[in-house]
């Protein structure tokens, strides 16, 4: 990997991956503990509508996409609060319509040919320095906001009723969280792609959750794990000439499966021991 860093595009890719790992580690932790993984996936896919709007009307990428993603995110957040029993279905519909709307607008854009695969898997090897600066500023802002509202986010994430009793504005905080998540997804999608955003938002926090003793530890652990996936994936892509985003996702997926199997092996013996103990008690009672 050291020899690969002699190339500027690899240095930019590494920096982009590390920044995305930190941003997704913080936001992904809040996504996982608040059980809004499906909603975050819906925002990521619906953001395609904003991409299509930006290309069709000739707008700058970020304002058009962020505006559309925020509108879709607020709609999904409202639905998840007011119609919880139907939220997954309606979010799925918005998810599909957003993608279809964006793709159709791109098809209708005269004289413009957009490679949609670059938005699926990203173009991490072609990240310009200006994007790195935007991601750095976004990472700092997210860290400051989460640190400022940490206690309220902690209360809302683990005990919503307790948070309300404490006077935490749960609804406003929830909408704020979804809004920041939408902006995060749009910024990171441009660099690493839709699929890698979802992977970095969900896989590291899920793995770390069982071992972390606090929300802060989970955020730090998720960021470090995401960074590890990024470094290993980039090295594999350089060494074996693979697509970088796909390589990072495969590394994360393999580690996820290993951790899942290890967890299952730990649970099964315990379950068997409990069943044997219960059977012994029943035998003794009879």
Task: Quickly describe the structure.
With 286 residues, the chain is an all-alpha fold. It is built from twelve helices and no strands.
Key terms for this structure?
286 residues; ABC transporter involved in vitamin B12 uptake, BtuC; 84% helix; disordered C terminus
Structure description:
The protein is built from 12 helices and no strands. The protein has one domain: ABC transporter involved in vitamin B12 uptake, BtuC (Orthogonal Bundle). It is mostly helical.
Helix segment tally: 12
Number of domains: 1
The CATH homologous superfamily = ABC transporter involved in vitamin B12 uptake, BtuC
Helix-strand string: HHHHHHHHHHHH
- What fraction strand? under 5%
User: Helix amount, in percent?
Assistant: over 70%
Total beta strands: 0
Q: What is the average of the pLDDT values? A: 85
CATH first level: Mainly Alpha
Going by helix content, strand content and strand pairing, the class is mainly alpha
Low-confidence stretches: 275-284
The separation of the N and C termini measures 66 Å
Looking at the structure, the CATH topology is ABC transporter involved in vitamin B12 uptake, BtuC
Main sheet: strands, sense, barrel: none
